[in-house]
UniProtKB/TrEMBL annotation:
<protein>
    <recommendedName>
        <fullName>Tryptophan--tRNA ligase, cytoplasmic</fullName>
        <ecNumber>6.1.1.2</ecNumber>
    </recommendedName>
</protein>
<keyword id="KW-0436">Ligase</keyword>
<feature type="region of interest" description="Disordered">
    <location>
        <begin position="235"/>
        <end position="254"/>
    </location>
</feature>
<dbReference type="GO" id="GO:0004830">
    <property type="term" value="F:tryptophan-tRNA ligase activity"/>
</dbReference>
<dbReference type="GO" id="GO:0005737">
    <property type="term" value="C:cytoplasm"/>
</dbReference>
<keyword id="KW-0648">Protein biosynthesis</keyword>
<keyword id="KW-0030">Aminoacyl-tRNA synthetase</keyword>
<dbReference type="InterPro" id="IPR014729">
    <property type="entry name" value="Rossmann-like_a/b/a_fold"/>
</dbReference>
<comment type="similarity">
    <text>Belongs to the class-I aminoacyl-tRNA synthetase family.</text>
</comment>
<dbReference type="InterPro" id="IPR002306">
    <property type="entry name" value="Trp-tRNA-ligase"/>
</dbReference>
<dbReference type="GO" id="GO:0006436">
    <property type="term" value="P:tryptophanyl-tRNA aminoacylation"/>
</dbReference>
<dbReference type="InterPro" id="IPR002305">
    <property type="entry name" value="aa-tRNA-synth_Ic"/>
</dbReference>
<keyword id="KW-0067">ATP-binding</keyword>
<keyword id="KW-0963">Cytoplasm</keyword>
<keyword id="KW-0547">Nucleotide-binding</keyword>
<dbReference type="Pfam" id="PF00579">
    <property type="entry name" value="tRNA-synt_1b"/>
</dbReference>
<dbReference type="GO" id="GO:0005524">
    <property type="term" value="F:ATP binding"/>
</dbReference>
Length: 254
């Protein structure tokens, strides 16, 4: 994030950039200027972020992208889609059943709603429940990516469940506007801005590459650093390690 780009954010929005930008928490991007230029030209775009439910409640680290996304929705007055990847956590976490991840997803949605997103312009969906609409674009993405590309990007091995190879396209497709026919019909060229943690970049680099092949709009991304664990800044908060994090449901004693 260059000083010039931060100045442009202030110019376009008409207010001081969010403290997460000023303090360097959101520190890098891909094509953010493309979205800002579109907004200046009064062209539409939408926001996309998500949550992988592996616990009943969010921890403080999870709040960063949602607080920031709420700011983006407010200053730009644009639609937001929030993906709940209950399918991903079932596939990637050996100790969780599908029923558990679906239930955790619904619980996490309550936390997400509490951030104060505009109800008229926010669509929160579970992959398991919305798959009918995700699947057509998922197939297009799956056809455009080879097995070797998937191994190279994500480091999957031959002993991994096949579901791990199948999932990244599911995370990719909410970046394409025609995945949401109730919002955009069959339009596939509405730009998308994705605020996320930096570890999500492999997914969205892949998404950007595939978008070009499909003649869809390439999504722009804006990445944050990790929220440090209670043990210090060398590791991040994790739902799988109760000693590393503070949950939104924790009491003062906890």
């Amino acid at each position: 994030m260059t000083p010039e780009l931060i100045e442009k954010i202030e110019k376009v929005t008409g207010e001081r950039p969010h403290r997460f930008i000023r303090r360097g928490m959101f520190f890098c991007h891909r094509d953010l200027d493309v979205v800002l230029n579109a907004y200046e030209q009064q062209k539409p775009f939408f926001l996309y972020t998500g949550r992988g439910p592996s616990a009943e409640a969010l921890h403080l680290g999870h709040t960063i992208p949602f607080i920031f996304t709420r700011y983006l929705q407010r200053v730009f007055d644009v639609p937001l889609v929030v993906q709940i990847t209950d399918d991903e956590k079932f596939i990637f976490k050996d100790n969780l059943t599908l029923e558990q991840t679906v239930k955790m997803g619904k619980s996490n949605i309550k936390d997400i709603i509490a951030f104060g997103f505009d109800p008229a312009k926010t669509f929160i969906f579970s992959d398991v429940e919305y798959i009918k609409y995700l699947y057509p674009n998922t197939l297009r993405v799956q056809k455009a990516i080879t097995y070797n590309q998937m191994k190279g990007i994500f480091g999957f091995t031959e002993s991994d469940p096949v579901g791990k190879f199948a999932f990244p396209p599911v995370q990719a497709v909410p970046a394409f506007s025609n995945t949401f026919p109730h919002i955009y019909g069959n339009r596939a060229t509405v730009p998308c801005l994705i605020p996320a943690a930096i570890d999500q970049d492999p997914y969205f680099r892949m998404t950007r590459d595939v978008a070009q092949k499909l003649k869809y709009s390439k999504p722009s991304t804006l990445y944050s650093t990790f929220f440090p664990a209670l043990q210090g800044k060398k590791s991040k908060m994790s739902s799988s390690d109760a000693t590393s994090s503070i949950l939104l449901t924790d009491t003062p004693k906890q």
